[in-house]
Design brief:
CATH architecture of the largest domain: Beta Barrel
Number of helices: 4
Largest sheet: 5 strands, antiparallel
Structural class: alpha+beta
Strand order of the largest sheet: 6-5-4-7-8
Number of domains: 2
CATH superfamily of the largest domain: RNA polymerase II/Efflux pump adaptor protein, barrel-sandwich hybrid domain
Radius of gyration: 15 Å
Distance between the termini: 15 Å
């Protein structure tokens, strides 16, 4: 399972590292210390928290920025549904929830799972996913 530092989590949430620290200090998302003494967040916990923040628009009146960079949405995988041949992957990228339909083989090759960092790229009506 991947783990994310406060700085990495802040980038995925679209907020400053100070805001992410305040949220962690307030107990909104669970953290623990890694072997190097850094505060980290488990990928699954961060994925759930990203969805919560997107739904509520942040906390305490803090506004979550609504930005994207040329159709690329770096975020975190929040759901993966595997079928026999096809799969559905959801990514929370700041306030944006993106859903991509792709092959099961592609999901397995990319190692996509809840809590994994990925980038959704949108072109017309297609959503492509890059493992970051």
């Amino acid at each position: 399972m991947p783990y994310y530092t406060i700085g990495q989590a802040a980038r995925l949430l679209g907020v400053s590292a100070d805001t992410a620290r305040r949220w962690a200090d307030a107990g909104r998302v669970a953290t623990h210390r890694d072997d190097g003494g850094r505060r980290v967040i488990e990928g699954r916990d961060l994925a759930a928290f990203c969805v919560e923040v997107a739904r509520t628009g942040g906390a305490g009146g803090e506004e979550v920025p609504y930005t994207s960079a040329r159709n690329a949405f770096p975020g975190i995988v929040t759901a993966v549904e595997l079928g026999d041949v096809a799969a559905q992957v959801e990514i929370q990228a700041g306030p944006h929830r993106l859903v991509s339909l792709l092959t099961r083989e592609a999901v397995e090759e990319l190692g996509l799972a809840v809590g994994v960092e990925a980038t959704a790229r949108v072109k017309a009506t297609s959503v492509h996913i890059d493992r970051t």
